[in-house]
């Protein structure tokens, strides 16, 4: 029974980095209607982490702000998300619309959410560039998003955990043999 009690803190110590995910937000950017049709953000990563998230475009015209691609880059590392059938693509693209009552006229809003495939990012500052369609005015439009960064355990930590689990299993086996 004692090895099981000793195993509990080890499991908690290993699970803590996996369970904790840091939230990430891409603040709302108002699009001014001027070309080029792109927006940029910076994503700071403290340690190697699994990133997953989404970006959302909102406009008062249907299909006004359609995201064509999102690029995450840092030096020579780059991830390009788009609608093409390649390694990194949008997990899903969903659209919705809603009406905001106004004093004189109701305003219809159109929104598109683009969920990104999870990727492992190294520590540092990543540039996030959003490329949008180019066939309509972007006035009264905005772009925002959110996501999470989840720490990826280092190989040395995993090796130490496996060694500790092996030692506990060996002790238990010897005690059972007595």
Taking the sheet with the most strands, its summary is: 6 strands, antiparallel
Overall pLDDT confidence: 80
Secondary structure tally: strands:
10
Roughly what percent helix? 10-25%
Uncertain spans: none
Distance between the termini: 15 Å
Portion of residues in beta strands equals over 45%
> Structural class of the helices, strands and pairings?
alpha+beta
Q: Rounded to an integer, what's the Rg over CA atoms? A: 23 Å
| Count of discrete alpha- or pi-helical segments spanning 4 or more residues | 2
**Overall 3D shape:** elongated
Give the H and E element order.
HEEEEEEEEEEH
What does this structure look like?
- With 178 residues, the protein is α+β, with helices and mostly antiparallel strands.
- The chain is built from two helices and ten strands, in the order H-E-E-E-E-E-E-E-E-E-E-H.
- The protein has helices at residues 2-19, 155-177, and strands at 21-31, 38-45, 49-59, 67-74, 77-82, 90-100, 107-116, 119-121, 124-132, 141-151.
- Helix 1 (2-19) runs antiparallel to helix 2 (155-177).
- The radius of gyration is 23 Å and the shape is elongated.
SSE arrangement:
Layout: H1 2-19, E1 21-31, E2 38-45, E3 49-59, E4 67-74, E5 77-82, E6 90-100, E7 107-116, E8 119-121, E9 124-132, E10 141-151, H2 155-177
Antiparallel strand pairs: 1-10, 2-9, 3-7, 3-8, 3-10, 4-5, 4-9, 6-7
Helix pairs in contact: 1-2
């Amino acid at each position: 029974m004692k090895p099981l009690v000793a195993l509990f803190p080890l499991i908690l110590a290993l699970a803590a980095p996996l369970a904790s995910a840091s939230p990430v937000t891409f603040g709302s950017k108002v699009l001014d209607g001027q070309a080029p049709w792109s927006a940029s953000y910076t994503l700071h990563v403290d340690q190697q982490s699994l990133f997953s998230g989404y970006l959302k475009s909102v406009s008062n015209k249907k299909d006004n702000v359609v995201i064509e691609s999102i690029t995450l880059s840092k030096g020579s590392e780059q991830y390009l998300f788009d609608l093409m059938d390649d390694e990194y693509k949008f997990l899903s693209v969903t659209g919705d619309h809603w009406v905001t009552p106004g004093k004189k006229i109701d305003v219809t809003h159109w929104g598109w959410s683009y969920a990104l495939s999870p990727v492992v990012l190294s520590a540092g500052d990543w540039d996030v560039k959003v490329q949008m369609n180019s066939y309509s005015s972007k006035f009264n439009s905005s772009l925002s998003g959110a996501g999470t960064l989840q720490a990826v355990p280092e190989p040395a930590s995993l090796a130490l955990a496996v060694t500790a689990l092996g030692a506990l299993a060996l002790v238990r086996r010897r005690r059972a043999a007595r």
